[in-house]
């Protein structure tokens, strides 16, 4: 979050070297990730704790007959989820390649894969909105039952995370394009 | 004051030091520290005033000063204020001001993020207290608007059904805002301490205060996400009709208790460890000895931090978790007595054999040890589940709270205040007034809070706004209340001393206490860039060794060895900026929208997001220097 | 101002006072709610560990404070003392020692603690316990005896010598059941079932109080336990089981009907015997206290209560639908009608 690091030429003069030999941003971000693990860990814990607590359906796996008679099968669509998870995983790979481009000062590679990372992130968000609407049409809403509450809040926050990531990636891309 | 005359030849740019704008835009860790400190103190007066109203209501049976929801609101806001808006930011004041000075750095790792943390903290503090404004207009007055579900806001009392008014909203959102600020500060200080130590300042040479700061920041970073999740689920329940804490739909109120105390117990160590760090500086300085067993004190601090995550259910012994869970948590809780004991014994051993100089700061430090032990031991008592079946929710716990938090945290903070005031202002506090302040506080503190043990043993439940003469608690409450008013008077003396010393106090010089750590090597108050030259650290007491070590020649002015290769100009200081403040206010406005009636709220919220992004991008695109 | 001698005296007094007071802790405290005057076996088990821990803790306190005080006084810098004291950095055997000493005390406390913790939470032992269903309401307790078909409020009758096994429930917020002289406390968590049990040994009245914040009138959520001799208890049961004898045409009953009291309250022996929102009023006249031990059960108080419940217990008489479980303020009932109503209810002995 805090600004770009000071240009190296200044740092050499008056600032002592970083004690860990790592950039501030890197140490800071690792701490942030540790913290974030607990954030999502708690959300996941809530999801797990309420796994079998829903009083009414739709349920993740079991079948449920709605009051109006429609039968809703286990609502989770594992194949689709697997594909979207794969997409998100691939975006990490793209990010690694982009970083490699940065490190080797290969700017075309860096830009292309930064863009690809963002696109894969967007694709994941697309999958997620599809999934959300699908679930909603099957009667699962935020308020319907505990499964809905925990599921939407957990995956919703994850989606928000991804969305912020995409925004950030695009910001970096724009910044890079503006300084040829 | 020394700094005025001090030439600053190397500094590349100097920025305005006066005027409101300079405070709104400052990124100087020392000024941010002062902002934290002053804000915390103002909130202390507010939280204390709330306590005094409570004590007035309880001074005799069946009083009519503040009843029902108003009284519930008073203890909720009293505790929320004292914990989140007083002790935490007061700790942050010292972290901000002192940590860079003590590790030989010129600022924190992310100065603008640091400013952002403060403004977010202020936004959260104001948000929680918005009920004062709304109660001026609302029908039911204060009672319908003030958050009143207790500082740990147990579900499902906090549900829309059982707390229909906006009070819980202010509380729950305000805490989420505060969490953002605390987390940002946590990342910042972890990086600062790990990565910005002066050359030669190894981890084991860090002052113990800095070590405790580090542990506290890790506790913040790992504990706050959990309460944030708890609060987010509550927010969804209250605003979007989810079922997280709705028993009728399968939700479990105990989920909240787990999430809250998983945060809440580390939180109490977040509140005490800074004070323990301060004590670990003050006691050696005024005993004129090094801290006894410093590595053990540091290590025990780490152990306290770690164990602190494994004891949360000792707040839930009466909820019927079963004998296995109760036993496990009793064991972990009791084990915390060991690292704490190690600290206490090392403090006493530090004084032992020293040349003890009884300054006011030292009085408060010794008072801390004496009173914290009482609070710690009562904590040890309710760590035993069978005993806790009586203690829980009785005044015995209220006594525990105040011995550890007032006798502990607040005494520690007072010790730090008297200790570092000369460094921060260049002037000494008046010692005579200081000692009156100490004795009055110490005596009144015991008069106020010791009888609460007896009230608790006599079966007085906490959080009751009234009792009857037949209950037999009248005397204890009368004594407590009288003590509380004397405490109020002692605070007034402190304020008087502070304000007069600021203008007329004796000039302190760089090193009034013959200190051992780096902050005493620079002028008081320190120049904007802190250190003219970055020192080379060769021991855990660099400044002491410069004065008393074998290399020091009698009569010569003490000098620190300098880090090689770092002498060259210029020193670059980060430029003041308004954007952290703008970004923080974006967060405030965003949440305000949620409370605004109907669709207007949506636009307010969107406006808040816009403001946030605008502030953030302006911040990112503004050069640092 | 404050020079040598006076702070010494002052501090001595200040440090000793709490210690002396602490010593008195066991002498004082013979209050109705006293936590150190148990009358049951379960209570005495708690008392045992309580006393042991207290004495150990007091001992540690005295020793630690003594060392601290001694160090501070003994090593004060003397007038004219120059230079620096010996710079001692630490001593590892000492560190090991004072890590182990607390461990010893912890073990001493821990062993009985764990024993009692487990003993208190075993499934209710003993044959033929009296089952009572306790439900926490806002802000009163309902007591139901399935064995006898009795539903009553705020006054729990138990026979001496027979184990009572109380099932604890709540259909609203969390409350906590606490009668210090009989047992420790246990929370009533909505959505969960908890139990607490004990065998009363001494006949008499006991005070209880809700011990978890439950809203505006949490402070006024008290109750009484009456431990009866077996004969008294049998008589009480028989009395409670008997329906009220009510003249449906009496003005009091008419008022009860006309003001819709029956939507929340039941009176057995009338058509209105199903509502469970408010306390069961079949025998309200025989209760000693009114509105969860808030005031004595006199006609004047009952009149005040019906007229203006929220004056006696804040939080009541909320007009929102969400709070349909709270007693209303009947401000507009004409005086004669109210008098008849009170007389009628007082007559329900
Ligand atoms: C600064 C804050 C602070 C600190 C440091 C502590 C420290 C401890 N606390 Fe406390 N606690 C609170 C703040 C704090 N607490 C608050 C605010 C609450 C109430 C929350 C609420 O309900 O509102 C609470 C409540 C609370 C409870 C729940 C009570 C209840 O509601 O039923 C328990 C139960 O185990 C407990 C235990 C302990 C223990 C064992 C320690 C230990 O860390 C103490 C260790 C210290 C010592 C033991 C003394 C020194 C040691 C020696 C001299 C060595 C020898 C000693 C022995 C061998 C015993 N605390
Ligand atoms: C750091 C934490 C902290 C501190 C410092 C204090 C300080 C004090 N507390 Fe606090 N207290 C808590 C944390 C703290 N408390 C917590 C966590 C709870 C539990 C809440 C809950 O149940 O949810 C609690 C609960 C609590 C209760 C129990 C309420 C209940 O259960 O019903 C009481 C009752 O006496 C009390 C009293 C006091 C008093 C008299 C002080 C005094 O020490 C205060 C001294 C300060 C002053 C007296 C200020 C003086 C100022 C003036 C005189 C000037 C006023 C002027 C202006 C505003 C301009 N506190
Ligand atoms: Cu019920 Cu408090
Ligand atoms: Cu705790």
Please describe what this structure looks like.
The complex is a heterotrimer of chains A (180), B (625) and C (349). Helices cover 68% and strands 2% of the residues of chain A. Chain A is mostly helical and 180 residues long. Chain A is elongated, with a radius of gyration of 21 Å. By secondary structure, chain B is mostly helical. Chain B is built from 21 helices and no strands. Chain B has helices at residues 2-5, 20-24, 29-57, 68-103, 111-128, 131-137, 142-145, 167-195, 208-240, 253-287, 294-307, 323-335, 337-351, 360-382, 385-391, 395-425, 431-457, 474-504, 542-548, 579-595, 600-621. In chain B, helix 8 (167-195) packs antiparallel against helix 9 (208-240) and helix 10 packs antiparallel against helix 14 (360-382). In chain C, 37% of the residues lie in helices and 17% in strands. Chain C has helices at residues 5-24, 41-74, 92-121, 230-241, 251-258, 299-307, 309-312, 335-346, and strands at 130-137, 140-145, 150-153, 155-159, 164-170, 175-177, 186-188, 194-198, 204-209, 222-228, 289-290, 295-296. In chain C, strand 11 and strand 12 (295-296) form a beta hairpin. In chain C, helix 2 runs antiparallel to helix 3, helix 5 (251-258) packs across helix 8 and helix 6 crosses helix 8. Residues 1-6 of chain C have low confidence and may be disordered. The structure holds heme-A (2 copies), dinuclear copper ion and copper (II) ion (CU). One heme-A (HEA) is lined by residues 45-46, 48-49, 51-52, 54-55, 75-76, 78-79, 82-83, 86-87, 150-151, 398, 401-402, 405-406, 409-410, 448, 462-463, 480, 484, 487-488, 491 of chain B.
What's the SSE blueprint?
The complex is a heterotrimer of chains A (180), B (625) and C (349).
Chain A lengths: L7 H7 L9 H26 L14 E2 L5 E2 L5 H26 L3 H31 L8 H33 L2
Antiparallel strand pairs in A: 1-2
Helix pairs in contact in A: 2-5, 3-4, 4-5
Chain B lengths: L1 H4 L14 H5 L4 H29 L10 H36 L7 H18 L2 H7 L4 H4 L21 H29 L12 H33 L12 H35 L6 H14 L15 H13 L1 H15 L8 H23 L2 H7 L3 H31 L5 H27 L16 H31 L37 H7 L30 H17 L4 H22 L4
Helix pairs in contact in B: 3-4, 3-5, 3-18, 4-8, 4-10, 4-16, 5-8, 5-20, 8-9, 9-10, 9-11, 10-11, 10-14, 10-16, 11-13, 14-16, 14-17, 16-17, 17-18, 20-21
Chain C lengths: L4 H20 L16 H34 L17 H30 L8 E8 L2 E6 L4 E4 L1 E5 L4 E7 L4 E3 L8 E3 L5 E5 L5 E6 L12 E7 L1 H12 L9 H8 L30 E2 L4 E2 L2 H9 L1 H4 L22 H12 L3
Helix pairs in contact in C: 2-3, 5-8, 6-8
Bound molecules: heme-A (HEA) (2 copies), dinuclear copper ion (CUA) and copper (II) ion.
């Amino acid at each position: 979050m805090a600004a770009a690091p000071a240009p190296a030429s200044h740092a050499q003069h008056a600032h002592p070297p970083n004690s860990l030999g790592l950039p501030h941003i890197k140490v800071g971000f690792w701490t942030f990730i540790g913290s974030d693990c607990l954030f999502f860990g708690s959300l996941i814990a809530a999801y797990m704790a309420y796994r079998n607590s829903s009083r009414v359906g739709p349920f993740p796996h079991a079948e449920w007959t709605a009051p109006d008679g429609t039968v809703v099968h286990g609502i989770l669509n594992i194949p689709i989820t697997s594909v979207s998870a794969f997409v998100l995983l691939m975006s990490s790979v793209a990010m690694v390649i982009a970083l490699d481009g940065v490190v080797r000062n290969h700017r075309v590679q860096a830009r292309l894969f930064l863009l690809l990372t963002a696109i894969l992130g967007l694709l994941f968000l697309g999958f997620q909105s599809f999934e959300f609407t699908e679930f909603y049409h099957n009667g699962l809403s935020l308020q319907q039952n505990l499964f809905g509450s925990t599921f939407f809040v957990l995956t919703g926050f994850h989606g928000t995370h991804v969305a912020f990531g995409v925004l950030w990636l695009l910001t970096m891309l724009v910044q890079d394009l503006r300084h040829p | 004051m020394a700094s005025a005359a001090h030439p600053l030849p190397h500094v590349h740019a100097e920025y305005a030091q006066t005027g409101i704008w300079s405070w709104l835009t400052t990124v100087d860790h020392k000024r941010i520290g002062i902002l934290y400190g002053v804000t915390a103190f103002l909130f202390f007066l507010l939280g204390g005033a709330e306590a005094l109203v409570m004590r007035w209501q309880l001074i005799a049976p069946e009083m009519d000063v503040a009843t029902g929801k108003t009284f519930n609101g008073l203890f909720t806001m009293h505790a929320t204020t004292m914990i989140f808006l007083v002790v935490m930011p007061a700790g942050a004041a010292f972290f901000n001001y002192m940590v860079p000075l003590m590790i030989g750095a010129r600022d924190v790792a992310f100065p603008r993020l640091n400013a952002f943390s403060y403004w977010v903290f202020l936004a959260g503090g104001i948000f929680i207290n918005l009920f004062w404004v709304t109660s001026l207009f609302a029908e039911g007055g204060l009672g319908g608007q003030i958050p009143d579900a207790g500082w740990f806001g147990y579900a499902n009392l906090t549900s829309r059904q059982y707390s229909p008014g906006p009070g819980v909203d202010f509380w729950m959102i305000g805490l989420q805002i505060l969490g953002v600020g605390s987390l940002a500060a946590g990342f910042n200080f972890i990086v600062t301490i790990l990565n910005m130590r002066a050359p030669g300042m190894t981890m084991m040479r860090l002052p113990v205060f800095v070590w405790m700061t580090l542990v506290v920041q890790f506790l913040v970073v790992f504990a706050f996400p959990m309460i944030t999740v708890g609060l987010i689920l509550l927010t969804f329940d209250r605003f979007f009709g989810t079922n997280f804490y709705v028993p009728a739909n399968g939700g479990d109120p105990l989920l909240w208790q787990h999430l809250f105390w998983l945060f809440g117990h580390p939180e109490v160590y977040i509140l005490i460890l800074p004070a323990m760090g301060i004590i670990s500086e003050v006691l050696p300085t005024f005993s004129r000895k090094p801290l006894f067993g410093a590595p053990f004190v540091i290590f025990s601090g780490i152990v306290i931090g770690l164990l602190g995550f494994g004891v949360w259910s000792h707040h839930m012994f009466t909820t019927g978790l079963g004998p296995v869970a109760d036993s496990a948590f009793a064991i972990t809780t009791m084990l915390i007595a060991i690292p704490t004991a190690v600290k206490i014994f090392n403090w006493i051993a530090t004084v032992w054999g020293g040349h003890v100089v009884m300054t006011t700061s030292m009085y408060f430090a010794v008072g801390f040890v004496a009173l914290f032990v009482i609070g710690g031991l009562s904590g040890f008592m309710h760590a035993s589940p069978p005993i806790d079946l009586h203690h829980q929710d009785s005044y015995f716990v209220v006594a525990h709270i105040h011995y550890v938090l007032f006798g502990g945290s607040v005494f520690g903070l007072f010790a730090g205040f008297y200790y570092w005031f000369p460094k921060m202002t260049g002037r000494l506090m008046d010692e005579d007034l200081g000692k009156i302040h100490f004795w009055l506080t110490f005596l009144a503190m015991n008069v106020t809070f010791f009888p609460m043990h007896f009230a608790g043993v006599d079966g007085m439940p906490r959080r009751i706004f009234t009792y009857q003469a037949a209950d037999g608690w009248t005397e204890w409450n009368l004594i407590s209340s009288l003590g509380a008013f004397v405490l109020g008077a002692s605070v007034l003396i402190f304020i008087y001393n502070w304000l007069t010393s600021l203008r007329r106090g004796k000039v302190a010089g760089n090193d009034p206490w013959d200190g051992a750590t780096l902050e005493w090597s620079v002028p008081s108050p320190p120049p904007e860039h802190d250190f003219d030259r970055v020192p080379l650290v060769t021991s855990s007491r660099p400044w002491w060794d410069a004065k008393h070590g074998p290399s020091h020649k009698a009569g010569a002015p003490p000098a620190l060895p300098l880090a090689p290769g770092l002498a060259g100009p210029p020193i670059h200081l980060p430029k003041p900026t308004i954007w952290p403040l703008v970004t923080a206010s974006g967060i405030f406005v965003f949440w305000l929208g949620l409370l605004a009636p109907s669709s207007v709220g949506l636009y307010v919220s969107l406006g808040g997001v816009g403001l946030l992004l605008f502030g953030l991008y302006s911040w990112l695109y503004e050069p640092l220097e | 101002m404050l020079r040598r001698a006076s702070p010494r005296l002052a501090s001595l007094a200040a440090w000793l006072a709490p210690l002396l007071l602490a010593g008195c802790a066991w002498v004082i405290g013979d209050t109705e709610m006293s936590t150190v005057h148990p009358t049951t076996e379960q209570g005495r088990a708690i008392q045992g560990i309580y006393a042991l821990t207290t004495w150990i803790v007091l001992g540690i306190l005295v020793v630690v404070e003594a060392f601290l005080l001694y160090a501070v006084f003994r090593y004060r810098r003397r007038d004219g003392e120059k230079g620096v004291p010996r710079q001692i950095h630490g001593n590892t055997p000492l560190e090991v020692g004072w890590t182990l000493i607390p461990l010893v005390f912890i073990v001493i406390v821990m062993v009985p603690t764990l024993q009692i913790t487990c003993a208190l939470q075993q499934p209710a032992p003993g044959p033929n316990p009296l089952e009572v269903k306790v439900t926490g309401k806002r802000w009163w307790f309902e007591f139901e005896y399935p064995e006898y078909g009795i539903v009553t409020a705020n006054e729990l009758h138990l026979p001496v010598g027979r184990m009572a096994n109380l099932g604890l429930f709540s259909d609203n917020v969390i409350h906590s059941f606490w009668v210090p002289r009989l047992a420790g406390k246990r929370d009533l968590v909505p959505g969960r079932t908890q139990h607490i049990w004990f065998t009363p040994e001494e006949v008499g009245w006991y005070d209880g109080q809700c011990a978890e914040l439950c809203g505006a009138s949490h402070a006024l959520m008290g109750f009484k336990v009456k431990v009866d001799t077996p004969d008294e208890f049998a008589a009480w049961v028989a009395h409670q089981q008997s329906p009220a004898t009510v003249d449906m045409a009496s003005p009091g009953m008419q008022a009860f009907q006309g003001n819709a009291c029956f939507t929340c309250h039941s009176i057995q022996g009338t058509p209105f015997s199903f509502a469970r929102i408010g306390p069961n009023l079949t025998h309200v006249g025989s209760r000693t206290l009114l509105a969860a031990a808030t005031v004595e059960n006199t006609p004047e108080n009952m009149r005040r209560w019906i007229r203006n419940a929220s004056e006696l217990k804040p939080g009541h008489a909320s007009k929102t639908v969400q709070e349909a479980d709270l007693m209303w303020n009947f401000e507009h009932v004409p005086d004669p009608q109210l008098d008849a109503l009170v007389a009628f209810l007082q007559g329900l002995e």
